Protein backbone atom coordinates (compact mmCIF):
# COMPACT_ATOMS: atom_id res chain seq x y z
CA UNK A 1 0.00 0.00 0.00
CA UNK A 2 1.44 3.34 -1.06
CA UNK A 3 1.48 5.92 1.73
CA UNK A 4 -0.24 9.06 0.47
CA UNK A 5 1.95 12.16 0.53
CA UNK A 6 0.57 15.55 1.59
CA UNK A 7 0.53 16.60 -2.06
CA UNK A 8 -1.34 13.48 -3.17
CA UNK A 9 -3.84 13.63 -0.30
CA UNK A 10 -4.65 17.33 -0.21
CA UNK A 11 -2.86 19.60 -2.70
CA UNK A 12 -3.54 17.70 -5.93
CA UNK A 13 -7.33 17.91 -5.59
CA UNK A 14 -7.19 21.61 -4.63
CA UNK A 15 -5.14 22.33 -7.77
CA UNK A 16 -7.61 20.33 -9.87
CA UNK A 17 -10.51 22.46 -8.64
CA UNK A 18 -8.63 25.75 -9.06
CA UNK A 19 -7.17 25.05 -12.50
CA UNK A 20 -10.25 23.39 -14.01
CA UNK A 21 -12.49 26.19 -12.73
CA UNK A 22 -10.22 28.87 -14.18
CA UNK A 23 -9.89 26.97 -17.47
CA UNK A 24 -13.68 26.65 -17.83
CA UNK A 25 -14.02 30.42 -17.42
CA UNK A 26 -11.06 31.46 -19.58
CA UNK A 27 -11.77 28.95 -22.35
CA UNK A 28 -15.53 29.54 -22.46
CA UNK A 29 -15.30 31.43 -25.81
CA UNK A 30 -13.45 28.45 -27.32
CA UNK A 31 -16.08 26.09 -25.90
CA UNK A 32 -18.79 28.13 -27.62
CA UNK A 33 -16.98 28.24 -30.97
CA UNK A 34 -16.21 24.52 -30.96
CA UNK A 35 -19.78 23.68 -29.93
CA UNK A 36 -21.20 25.72 -32.82
CA UNK A 37 -18.79 24.10 -35.30
CA UNK A 38 -19.59 20.60 -34.05
CA UNK A 39 -23.33 21.27 -34.30
CA UNK A 40 -22.88 22.64 -37.84
CA UNK A 41 -20.52 20.00 -39.19
CA UNK A 42 -21.45 16.85 -37.24
CA UNK A 43 -24.94 17.49 -36.00
CA UNK A 44 -26.54 16.92 -32.61
CA UNK A 45 -25.80 16.10 -29.86
CA UNK A 46 -22.72 18.30 -29.58
CA UNK A 47 -21.34 16.39 -26.62
CA UNK A 48 -20.42 12.72 -26.61
CA UNK A 49 -21.16 11.05 -23.26
CA UNK A 50 -19.78 7.66 -22.28
CA UNK A 51 -19.55 5.69 -19.03
CA UNK A 52 -15.98 5.27 -17.80
CA UNK A 53 -14.47 3.79 -14.63
CA UNK A 54 -12.87 6.26 -12.22
CA UNK A 55 -11.18 6.01 -8.84
CA UNK A 56 -11.87 2.66 -7.15
CA UNK A 57 -13.69 1.64 -10.37
CA UNK A 58 -16.55 4.06 -9.67
CA UNK A 59 -18.48 4.50 -12.93
CA UNK A 60 -19.08 8.06 -14.12
CA UNK A 61 -20.22 9.81 -17.30
CA UNK A 62 -17.30 11.34 -19.18
CA UNK A 63 -17.98 14.20 -21.61
CA UNK A 64 -16.18 15.07 -24.84
CA UNK A 65 -17.04 16.99 -27.99
CA UNK A 66 -18.21 14.52 -30.59
CA UNK A 67 -15.80 13.83 -33.44
CA UNK A 68 -17.74 11.27 -35.49
CA UNK A 69 -20.92 11.22 -37.52
CA UNK A 70 -23.74 8.72 -36.93
CA UNK A 71 -23.54 7.23 -40.44
CA UNK A 72 -24.98 3.72 -40.65
CA UNK A 73 -25.10 0.95 -43.23
CA UNK A 74 -28.27 -0.40 -44.87
CA UNK A 75 -28.87 -2.67 -41.86
CA UNK A 76 -28.71 0.15 -39.37
CA UNK A 77 -25.23 -0.63 -38.03
CA UNK A 78 -22.75 2.16 -37.45
CA UNK A 79 -20.06 2.38 -40.10
CA UNK A 80 -16.40 1.81 -39.09
CA UNK A 81 -14.68 4.57 -37.10
CA UNK A 82 -12.35 5.49 -39.96
CA UNK A 83 -15.37 6.33 -42.13
CA UNK A 84 -17.34 8.23 -39.48
CA UNK A 85 -14.30 10.21 -38.30
CA UNK A 86 -14.38 13.31 -40.49
CA UNK A 87 -11.57 15.70 -41.34
CA UNK A 88 -13.02 18.12 -38.80
CA UNK A 89 -13.20 15.34 -36.20
CA UNK A 90 -9.54 14.51 -36.82
CA UNK A 91 -8.66 18.16 -36.29
CA UNK A 92 -10.48 18.19 -32.95
CA UNK A 93 -8.62 15.07 -31.85
CA UNK A 94 -5.20 16.17 -33.06
CA UNK A 95 -5.53 19.45 -31.15
CA UNK A 96 -7.20 17.70 -28.17
CA UNK A 97 -10.05 20.23 -28.35
CA UNK A 98 -12.48 17.31 -28.12
CA UNK A 99 -11.21 16.72 -24.56
CA UNK A 100 -12.17 20.17 -23.24
CA UNK A 101 -15.55 19.13 -21.71
CA UNK A 102 -13.61 16.80 -19.39
CA UNK A 103 -12.70 19.93 -17.43
CA UNK A 104 -16.24 19.69 -16.03
CA UNK A 105 -15.50 16.10 -14.93
CA UNK A 106 -12.37 17.37 -13.18
CA UNK A 107 -14.26 20.14 -11.38
CA UNK A 108 -16.92 17.62 -10.25
CA UNK A 109 -14.28 15.25 -8.88
CA UNK A 110 -14.70 12.41 -11.39
CA UNK A 111 -11.26 13.08 -12.83
CA UNK A 112 -7.97 14.83 -12.18
CA UNK A 113 -5.87 16.95 -14.52
CA UNK A 114 -3.05 14.39 -14.32
CA UNK A 115 -3.64 10.65 -14.01
CA UNK A 116 -4.18 7.43 -15.99
CA UNK A 117 -6.68 7.99 -18.80
CA UNK A 118 -10.21 6.66 -18.11
CA UNK A 119 -10.74 3.70 -20.43
CA UNK A 120 -13.77 1.59 -21.31
CA UNK A 121 -15.87 -0.11 -18.64
CA UNK A 122 -15.63 -3.36 -20.60
CA UNK A 123 -11.89 -3.49 -19.88
CA UNK A 124 -12.34 -3.84 -16.11
CA UNK A 125 -12.48 -7.67 -16.02
CA UNK A 126 -9.44 -7.89 -18.33
CA UNK A 127 -6.85 -6.18 -16.11
CA UNK A 128 -4.35 -8.26 -14.15
CA UNK A 129 -3.73 -7.53 -10.45
CA UNK A 130 -1.01 -4.96 -11.22
CA UNK A 131 -2.99 -3.14 -13.90
CA UNK A 132 -5.99 -2.77 -11.58
CA UNK A 133 -3.96 -0.31 -9.50
CA UNK A 134 -4.45 2.31 -12.23
CA UNK A 135 -7.84 2.79 -10.56
CA UNK A 136 -6.33 3.64 -7.17
CA UNK A 137 -6.42 7.29 -8.22
CA UNK A 138 -8.72 9.58 -10.19
CA UNK A 139 -8.25 9.19 -13.96
CA UNK A 140 -6.69 12.13 -15.74
CA UNK A 141 -7.17 14.50 -18.64
CA UNK A 142 -3.56 13.66 -19.45
CA UNK A 143 -1.00 11.35 -17.91
CA UNK A 144 2.42 9.75 -18.02
CA UNK A 145 1.38 7.39 -20.83
CA UNK A 146 0.02 10.29 -22.88
CA UNK A 147 3.34 12.14 -22.88
CA UNK A 148 5.25 8.94 -23.62
CA UNK A 149 3.49 7.76 -26.76
CA UNK A 150 -0.26 8.06 -26.20
CA UNK A 151 -1.98 5.81 -28.79
CA UNK A 152 1.29 4.89 -30.52
CA UNK A 153 2.47 2.58 -27.70
CA UNK A 154 1.23 -0.89 -26.73
CA UNK A 155 -1.33 -1.53 -24.04
CA UNK A 156 1.33 -3.20 -21.89
CA UNK A 157 3.59 -0.14 -22.11
CA UNK A 158 0.65 2.15 -21.39
CA UNK A 159 -0.42 0.22 -18.30
CA UNK A 160 3.15 0.01 -17.01
CA UNK A 161 3.41 3.80 -17.25
CA UNK A 162 0.03 4.20 -15.53
CA UNK A 163 1.15 2.03 -12.61
CA UNK A 164 4.50 3.80 -12.42
CA UNK A 165 2.62 7.09 -12.12
CA UNK A 166 0.24 5.80 -9.44
CA UNK A 167 3.17 4.58 -7.34
CA UNK A 168 5.04 7.88 -7.55
CA UNK A 169 2.61 10.80 -7.55
CA UNK A 170 4.35 14.06 -6.77
CA UNK A 171 4.16 17.75 -7.67
CA UNK A 172 7.32 17.76 -9.78
CA UNK A 173 6.15 14.89 -11.99
CA UNK A 174 2.64 16.35 -12.40
CA UNK A 175 4.14 19.69 -13.43
CA UNK A 176 6.41 18.02 -16.00
CA UNK A 177 3.50 16.02 -17.45
CA UNK A 178 1.32 19.15 -17.58
CA UNK A 179 3.79 21.12 -19.69
CA UNK A 180 4.89 18.12 -21.79
CA UNK A 181 1.23 17.64 -22.76
CA UNK A 182 1.16 21.05 -24.44
CA UNK A 183 4.32 20.14 -26.37
CA UNK A 184 2.86 16.79 -27.51
CA UNK A 185 -0.40 18.41 -28.60
CA UNK A 186 1.50 21.11 -30.51
CA UNK A 187 3.58 18.59 -32.48
CA UNK A 188 0.58 16.22 -32.75
CA UNK A 189 2.56 13.20 -31.60
CA UNK A 190 0.99 9.82 -30.81
CA UNK A 191 -2.58 10.67 -31.85
CA UNK A 192 -3.14 7.40 -33.73
CA UNK A 193 -1.86 3.88 -33.48
CA UNK A 194 -0.24 2.31 -36.53
CA UNK A 195 -3.35 0.34 -37.45
CA UNK A 196 -6.31 2.37 -36.18
CA UNK A 197 -7.60 5.92 -36.21
CA UNK A 198 -7.30 5.88 -32.43
CA UNK A 199 -6.10 2.71 -30.73
CA UNK A 200 -7.05 -0.94 -31.07
CA UNK A 201 -9.20 -2.37 -28.30
CA UNK A 202 -7.61 -3.98 -25.26
CA UNK A 203 -8.46 -7.68 -25.38
CA UNK A 204 -6.68 -8.84 -22.23
CA UNK A 205 -3.23 -10.06 -21.30
CA UNK A 206 -1.52 -12.98 -22.99
Automatic annotation (TrEMBL):
<feature type="domain" description="Bacterial sugar transferase">
    <location>
        <begin position="12"/>
        <end position="186"/>
    </location>
</feature>
<keyword id="KW-0812">Transmembrane</keyword>
<dbReference type="Pfam" id="PF02397">
    <property type="entry name" value="Bac_transf"/>
</dbReference>
<dbReference type="GO" id="GO:0016740">
    <property type="term" value="F:transferase activity"/>
</dbReference>
<keyword id="KW-0808">Transferase</keyword>
<protein>
    <submittedName>
        <fullName>Sugar transferase</fullName>
    </submittedName>
</protein>
<keyword id="KW-0472">Membrane</keyword>
<keyword id="KW-1133">Transmembrane helix</keyword>
<comment type="similarity">
    <text>Belongs to the bacterial sugar transferase family.</text>
</comment>
<dbReference type="InterPro" id="IPR003362">
    <property type="entry name" value="Bact_transf"/>
</dbReference>
<feature type="transmembrane region" description="Helical">
    <location>
        <begin position="17"/>
        <end position="38"/>
    </location>
</feature>
